Structures are given as C-alpha cells and as structure tokens.
C-alpha cells in the first residue's frame, strides 16, 4: 500500500495540490468533496460533483438525490454549513416504522465518482446527528447499481464531527461509488464538506 496524501482545498473547492502526509477525502455523504485511491502510485484524484453542496436551489442539491426505502416520512432541507458558512444538508425522519433515508451522489456517470476495482478509497464526512447513523456504500458495475456495505455505525453527535473511513478493496467490475449517511429512525442527520 502506498503512503496516503492529503488533498488541499482552494476557494472552497477541491484543488489539485497534494501534500505528502495523509490522504484525506472530504466527503459528505451528503456533502462529499474528494475521494483518493489508497493503492494508486500515480495519486489519481476523483472529484465529487458539488461536494460542498453549494450548487442547487431551495432544498435541492445538484448532483445529489434523497434515497431510501420503508415506511417513514422524510424532509430534506438546506441549512447553514459548519461554521455558519455555505450550505449543508439536513435530513429528518418522522413517523418511522421501517427503512432508512440518505442523501447520495446521484447514481449517474456525471455525479457518482469513477473508481478502480481492486483499489481502496478513504472517505470522509463532517456530520451532526440526533441518533446513530450508518455510512452506507453502493457500487456500480456492468450489472448496475447495488448495495455494497455499511462501513461503520457512527454515534450521535451534537457538534459537527469529522469521520474518515476506508472502503474494502473494491470487487472486480466496480467502476463507480455512491455513499451517504443512512438514518433509520426518528431523528435528523446534517452533513457538510
């Protein structure tokens, strides 16, 4: 495995500057910025469209979709981002009986980042949540989109908290990823950067 690197940011967007310390991919399942392959010698960086959630109008986030299943009522709204700047995504469930909801990069060629099978990726997200949430990962192959795994259950957090998780080695045929913080029960999860 090669040494991970940290991606710099310029003007609120992912930049191409790289330092030699730690590969940080600021994602927001919801507000995702960059993912970095951990096994690449060439340091290929795949940008996430609208990773800071700034593009979109009202309560819509360009290149992201509110997805889920089950019997529940959900509301997606734009709220001030961490530190009071920019936009973040607030997803609230009420009257939960089953299922979950999550904000994902739209599962299209232009929105979900391209990846390389056999590689691992470091994902990061800033979030607050009134209940535990799962970082849920979906993968695309020639067969289409499918659920892949829940990387980790994250605890409730009253202040914005950053988490970084590494994907398993991606299976043969995987060419895109989509992920988000899944909430399954009454409560709210907010994601940014």
Task: Summarize the structure in words.
The chain is mainly beta and 193 residues long. It is 0% helix and 52% strand. The protein is built from no helices and 15 strands. The protein has strands at residues 6-10, 13-19, 26-27, 34-37, 46-47, 64-69, 73-80, 87-94, 100-105, 121-129, 133-141, 144-154, 157-166, 176-182, 187-192. The strands form 4 sheets. Strands 3, 4, 5, 7, 8, 10, 13 and 15 form an 8-stranded mixed sheet that branches. The model is unreliable at 1-46 (pLDDT under 50).
The SSE order reads EEEEEEEEEEEEEEE
Profile the largest sheet: 8 strands, mixed
Strand content: over 45%
Question: How many DSSP-defined strands?
Answer: 15
- Uncertain spans: 1-46
Quick check: average pLDDT? 79
State Rg.
Answer: 16 Å
Count of helices?
A: 0
Could you give the distance between the termini? 26 Å
Question: Structural class of the secondary elements?
Answer: mainly beta
Question: Overall 3D geometry?
Answer: globular
